[in-house]
Amino acid sequence: MPGPLLETLRGANLSRRPIWLMRQAGRYLPEYRELRADKGGFLALVYDTDAAAEVTVQPIRRFGFDGAILFSDILIVPYAMGQDLRFLAGEGPALSPRLLDATLESLVAAPERLSPIYETVAKVKAQLSPETTLLGFAGSPWTVATYMVAGEGSRDHHETRALAYRDPGAFQAIIDAIADVTVEYLSGQVEAGAEGLQLFDSWSGSLAPAEFERWVIAPNARIAATMQARYPHVPVIGFPKGAGEKLAVYARETGVNAVGVDETIDPLWAAREMPAGMPVQGNLDPLLLLAGGAELEKQTIRVLEAFADRPHVFNLGHGIGQFTPIEHVEQLLGIVRNWTR
């Protein structure tokens, strides 16, 4: 019997809304900070499969969320494609050689770098009850490409956007290569035990409409179609952060099973504009969770009521903040679990 999260992602409109939170495994938890201090660097933690599995189940053990999401990083895909990956203290991830300076063909693929992630999935799956849905994930091609091209994160992704305008053929090859590896990576996660998948397009909001169609919608549609053909029982959540009014087109054209809504979108608009019956996920502002109190309760209920007439997974509009108090998460859980449509 599937758990409530999986049921909802498959289209059931349940009275009690399932809940999980993006970045629920991480720095706001004291048990995570203790383990991280013991293990050292972030990448070392990801590749220690016992530790990564422990991090994944920590929030389930503490809060009993309806979904566990794999503890990993979207940049594992370029790492497997042959770029070197480092996480620099205070600066974030760094990939080399960056594709502004090197060709895609010069990279030497290292698919063995994916195998430990599958081991983590299997170890997590063995620890979860049947009611808790295990979610795998990957970054969407556009977002992954912004890091591969520039070698690091940036505010407006101008170098990647300029390359896409200047040489769309070369950039299409990068997007296609990322999509190919992503399909195999997600397939490996499903084979290891993932029951649902999320595609994170964290930087989709930086694109003009025509570019959004080509670099966000088209590759995500290809990935979703391939995964659904291979694993029709495994729902795919698409999360194009910053898409704004383009979210409705994304929901209609990508073929994902469910769509994540970020905190900048009015939930009443999303409830009205998303395809009829499509499950939605979101979209409380993470800063409300940081603040807590009466406003957290008010806005949580507003989100729940806005999506009352369709399948809804309660979540944040983006990741939980590092300094979020544990008691505020407990407050949120109490509100969601005591609400019924």
Automatic annotation (TrEMBL):
It catalyses: uroporphyrinogen III + 4 H(+) = coproporphyrinogen III + 4 CO2. The keyword Lyase applies. It comes from the Bacteria. SUPFAM superfamilies: UROD/MetE-like. The keyword Cytoplasm applies. The record marks D73 as: Transition state stabilizer. Its EC number is 4.1.1.37. Residues 18-27, 135-151 form the Uroporphyrinogen decarboxylase (URO-D) domain. It holds the Pfam family URO-D. It is found in: Cytoplasm. Homodimer. This is Uroporphyrinogen decarboxylase. The lineage of its organism: Bacteria, Pseudomonadati, Pseudomonadota, Alphaproteobacteria, Sphingomonadales.
